[in-house]
Amino acid sequence: MRLLTLYLRSRQVPVALGVAAAGVAVVALLGNAPERPLQTRVFAVLALGLGLGVLGNGLGGAAAALERTAATRWAYWRTAHVVAVALVVFAVAAASSDAPTVIVLRATAGLVGLTALAAAALGHQLAWTLPTAGAGAAAVVPPLTEPAFLRVLTWPMQPSDSTAASVVAAILAVGGLITYAARGSR
Q: Rounded to whole angstroms, how far apart are CA atoms 76 and 37?
């Protein structure tokens, strides 16, 4: 238990968790509009981007050299950390937003993959960039279906039955998780 406490504190998780949960809940609640389902989905995705942006900083510690040399199986810790971040953000967004749960789940999976990829490629200090940019782009670009590549580019806002959006989210989630678990934060 002491190792877990030290791990969480070294990544500033206790503070970030409260800020992220409050931010996700407020943004998701502000977007709830039963008469405008697209607005509800946009705000749900923006809330996820905000939460993952805040929690993404915790995907690395203060001493990268220590994490690379310690006699700890970091891949397990990293995997558990990313999954826990995804579960927390999804739970808060799903509870706060009127958006369909399938869309919130798909967006969470894809955006957490982007967060992990950003941490591995850019470092934990910049882990917020890809999920925030992805959520922001989803909010600005409408969910277009033709031509086919636009379904891929606008995956977070596609309808819940969109196979292309689900495949993109799954690829981002698995690719991000594997890359971050293997490499860690840059």
A: 38
Q: Are 119 and 110 in contact (CB under 8 A)?
A: no
**Structure tokens that stand for 12 in this block:** 């500033």
Its pTM stands at 0.91
Question: Rounded distance, CA 40 to CA 176, Å?
Answer: 27
Cβ(119)–Cβ(111) below 8 Å: no
**Longest Cα–Cα distance in the chain:** 55
Residues 15-66 have pLDDT tens digits of 888 999 999 999 999 989 888 988 999 999 999 999 999 998 888 877 666 6
Q: Residue 108 in contact with residue 51, Cβ under 8 Å?
A: no
Q: Give CA–CA dist 142/149, Å, rounded.
A: 14
Burial of 18 (0-12, 13-18, 19+ CB in 10 A): exposed
- CB distance 89 to 52 below 8 Å: yes
Q: Which of 51, 111, 116, 53 is nearest to 81 (CA)?
A: 116
